[in-house]
Specification:
Layout (H helix, E strand, L loop, with lengths): L13 H8 L5 H10 L13 H4 L5 H14 L6 E9 L8 H7 L4 E10 L2 E3 L15 E6 L7 H17 L8 H16 L10
Helix pairs in contact: 2-4, 5-7
Length: 200
């Protein structure tokens, strides 16, 4: 986090106002606050301020709100990224049990994070895994904060379609089944009961 700019938050937009309303005065404090918020989906991804008002967020909403805060305060080079990595129990704490139940070592996951001056930063959680998602990063693309919903899902599902074909996994698996595995992993990360809905 040392290389990230630690600017003073000005009242320069909707997101800046929400951070100031929480008593947060600079970017470093904002990052730590967002990182420590519990993992969980907000009621509406498109309303980034809900990360603060509902006190929860995922990799998408947490990094989008930080990127938007930086942009409002004159740091558009704090770039929101979308990457695909091989999600497993070592690089995403808590999902290993779910993957084992499905007989999978990993699944490709779409992950959001921020990049500044070619360095990647992940503030999804304050709990470190044994490995970083960046260790198995396959591809990445810069995105806008308004692309964390439909664009991200379409990008991810297209990747899964090609991955199943390239690895000759079609038959037992299809995109919807892999998506169900992913949803169960997210429930596990959120501390909610997962729903394994099928077995071969």
């Amino acid at each position: 986090m040392n290389k990230l700019p630690n600017f003073v938050i000005g009242n320069r937009g909707r997101i800046s106002f929400e951070f100031l309303n929480q008593g947060l005065r600079d970017f470093k404090d904002a990052i730590e606050y967002v990182r420590d918020i519990p993992y969980g989906r907000t009621s509406n991804k498109k309303r980034l301020q809900l990360v603060l008002t509902e006190n929860r967020g995922t990799c998408s909403t947490k990094h989008a709100i930080l990127a938007e805060l930086a942009s409002e305060n004159g740091y558009p080079d704090v770039q929101l990224m979308l990457g695909i990595y091989q999600m497993n129990g070592d690089n995403t704490r808590g999902v290993g049990k779910v993957l084992r139940e499905y007989g999978l070592e990993h699944v490709p996951e779409a992950h959001n994070y921020i990049v500044y001056k070619q360095d990647r930063y992940d503030f999804t959680s304050n709990i470190d895994s044994e490995q970083s998602p960046f260790d198995t990063l396959i591809e990445e693309v810069p995105i806008r904060t308004d692309q964390i919903s439909d664009f991200k899902q379409d990008y991810h599902r297209t990747y899964l379609t090609n991955w199943l074909k390239q690895n000759k996994l079609r038959g037992r698996w299809n995109v919807d089944k892999i998506w169900q595995v992913r949803e169960d992993c997210i429930r596990e990360l959120s501390g909610k009961k997962k729903t394994v809905v099928w077995r071969d």
